[in-house]
Amino acid sequence: MDGILFIDEAYTLSGGKGGHDFGQEAIDTLLKEMEDKRDRLVIIVAGYPAEMRAFINSNPGLASRFAKTIEFQPYSPPELIEIFKGMLRKEDLHLAPDWPEAELTGWFSSRLTDPQFGNARTVRTIVERIREAQSLRLAQNGAGDLQTVTAEDVQEALASC
């Protein structure tokens, strides 16, 4: 009470297939609480646009209580590159001068229309895969700079994503 409840991937509540799925019960409880305690409770639901539209349309009470929709556009490839560089900095990594920026930018561009593209989550996955590729490369070579990400590391990561 007197706060905000944020439910990410809220559409999963309405996707039940029977059995021991408590999604509908959760929705019914939310609707009641939103009505009974509307002056003490804020609920924000989030998720992929198409799935959220289906969620809101799954119950007439949801549409009337979630009247405001804010749709966030995906990051652009240059913004994703900046997020990528920031994540590397946070891990104390730096890019070799010959890192394939154009290849990574193109990779992002080619995936922007994929409904499952995860924006910054995908960037995080790439950084994790880069760490794995870098570790394998360093283990095979027996030596190297632990803070430098090479073109090879980036290409290996993209190939595995």
TrEMBL record:
<dbReference type="InterPro" id="IPR003959">
    <property type="entry name" value="ATPase_AAA_core"/>
</dbReference>
<dbReference type="InterPro" id="IPR041627">
    <property type="entry name" value="AAA_lid_6"/>
</dbReference>
<dbReference type="InterPro" id="IPR027417">
    <property type="entry name" value="P-loop_NTPase"/>
</dbReference>
<keyword id="KW-0614">Plasmid</keyword>
<comment type="similarity">
    <text>Belongs to the CbxX/CfxQ family.</text>
</comment>
<dbReference type="GO" id="GO:0016887">
    <property type="term" value="F:ATP hydrolysis activity"/>
</dbReference>
<dbReference type="Pfam" id="PF17866">
    <property type="entry name" value="AAA_lid_6"/>
</dbReference>
<dbReference type="InterPro" id="IPR050773">
    <property type="entry name" value="CbxX/CfxQ_RuBisCO_ESX"/>
</dbReference>
<keyword id="KW-0547">Nucleotide-binding</keyword>
<feature type="domain" description="CbbX AAA lid">
    <location>
        <begin position="103"/>
        <end position="154"/>
    </location>
</feature>
<keyword id="KW-0067">ATP-binding</keyword>
<protein>
    <recommendedName>
        <fullName>AAA ATPase, central domain protein</fullName>
    </recommendedName>
</protein>
<dbReference type="InterPro" id="IPR000641">
    <property type="entry name" value="CbxX/CfxQ"/>
</dbReference>
<feature type="domain" description="ATPase AAA-type core">
    <location>
        <begin position="3"/>
        <end position="72"/>
    </location>
</feature>
<dbReference type="GO" id="GO:0005524">
    <property type="term" value="F:ATP binding"/>
</dbReference>
<dbReference type="Pfam" id="PF00004">
    <property type="entry name" value="AAA"/>
</dbReference>
